Amino acid sequence: MTIYFGRLVKLAANQLTRDFDAFAKQYDLTSTQMAMIDYLSRSEMVTQRDIEQEFNIQRSTATLILQRMEKAELVRRENLASDARQKQVLLLPKAQALETVIQAYMQESDQQLLVGYEDQQVREMTQLLENIIKGVDKHA
Fold it and tell me: For 26-98, where are the alpha helices, taking DSSP H only?
């Protein structure tokens, strides 16, 4: 029996994205926008470069997503005083109003994913996924 582990990881990621999109849609968001709001709400100071690294996306992709979020009045980008080449990303009131509901959804989603697994299994799965991400990154 051949196991295509990469395929299973991709299918799992697709399912999670569908679930996240379904939840985000009720707030006129995409799953990516929801995840970015969550990330921004848990961080004191975030630059566009931080977002690129956190979500493992290219600068052009981050720019496009952030432009759409600016148009939807969810975020604002402004130059850093210390380095005008860097842009800080700030949540606007519309996104701030969603912080609690998004954080609660993300936490509940994680809890549901991990039901029935022992702490050691969760640590091992986390390590496995982190290694996959690092490995994929090395081949990019």
Answer: 31-41, 48-54, 59-71, 93-96
